[in-house]
Amino acid sequence: MTTKFPSLAGLDLLASAVLVLDAQGCIRYANPAAENLLESSLKVMQNQRLTDMFLNGVELQDIFTQAAAHLFDDKRQDLVLERMGRDPLQVHMMVSALDDPQMPVLIELRENVQQLKLDREERLMDQSQANKELIRNLAHEIKNPLGGIRGAAQLLELELPERQLNPLREYTQVIIKEADRLQTLVDRLLAPHRRPHIVGDVNIHEVFERVRSLIMAEFPNGLTIKRDYDLSVPEFRGDKEQLIQAVLNIAHNAAQALAKRIEAGDAVLTFQTRVARQVTLVKVRYRLALDLHIVDNGPGIPPEIQNRIFYPLVSGRDGGSGLGLTLAQTFIQQHMGVIECESRPGCTDFRILIPLP
Predict the structure, then answer these.
(1) Which three-class secondary structure string do you get for 55-83?
(2) What mean pLDDT value characterizes the chain?
(3) How far from the centroid of its chain's Cα atoms is residue 119's Cα?
């Protein structure tokens, strides 16, 4: 299209999505960024009315009509563009009226990253609250009959005839041991809700160094832990033991995911500390926040569970309890912070943000 409209060639280089519409509201030009954002090629979009591409096209029609009539030179607003069979697009839209009567309207779209981030954090908080209620209710429902099952198995063992004690005792012990295992699981589920929040001065590098020593003791060979610390990070008020447990749960999961690379001797785990400025966490603006990263070069989190990794009992590893990340998220949220995760093969980055006073 840029050969047909050489004056638009420079728009191909822009990172933001640009569309140019004719007098009927049909797309005449779309730059590569627009093709990428709208997940459609210019060949498919060309001569298609922009308002027909979205379920809520009426909103766009009003804006286009005003721009084509030169009721404004340019206009900006945030919009959610609803699409059939695809996730909605949250965008910041800039509409400009052009002097060309054949192509009177230019639209620039930028994905609203900040809004997406806020929505994701809000979902995490809602999910975490639902998880807490589910865990508490489920744990109490399991715990009460467990004691009865274990007690009945012990009484049954005492009532076994002497000659049948040894062959049948094996079965009663299975019941007792499995009841104990479930009791341990329930205790772990309830642990964050029972333990008091003990606040004191915390040096985050002491937290990371403690976790580093624990991980290196368990994985002494084949794993390198790199430290990328900002020593200017200030101390803050928090629960040191909870923070150690949260970082340890994430780092331990990462080390276990690195099993094949540890065997090959090229596993790398990176601890990074920074201070972020002007951070919004769950709709609250903070001047400063701890910006912590735990990064590994493992195979990445399976795509099918990436959106559910903080759910209880969801694990991407055989034999995993699926509680480590749930507890980590709970502990960080008790510090008014959040945990985010980005993962692809070769790089999984867990980011912890905690507001600073």
Answers:
(1) CCHHHHHHHHHHHHCCCCCEEEEEEEECC
(2) 83
(3) 11
pLDDT tens track for 273-291: 999 988 878 777 888 999 9
Q: Where are the alpha helices (DSSP H) in 103-161?
A: 113-159
DSSP 8-state symbol, 187: H
Element (H, E) at 19: strand 17-21
| Rama region for 84: left / alpha / beta (φ>0; ψ in -120 to 50; rest) | beta
For 349, which DSSP code?
E
State which H helix or E strand residue 100 sits in.
none
Q: List, in order, residues 6 or more apart from 235 with CB less than 8 Å away.
A: 201, 202, 203
The per-residue pLDDT for range 8-63, each reduced to its tens digit, is 667 888 878 899 999 999 999 999 888 888 888 888 898 899 888 888 888 888 88
Adjacent-strand bridge partners of 107 = 19, 95
348 close to 257: Cβ distance less than 8 angstroms: yes
C-beta atoms surrounding 267 within 10 Å:
23
Q: Pull the structure tokens for residue 47.
A: 């001569």
* Rg, Å, the chain Cα set: 28
In angstroms, the CA 188 to CA 324 distance is: 10
Local structure of 111: helix, strand or coil: strand
What pLDDT score was predicted for residue 348? 93
Report the predicted TM-score, pTM, of the whole model to 2 decimal places. Answer: 0.57
- Evaluate whether 91 touches 112 at the Cβ level (below 8 Å): yes
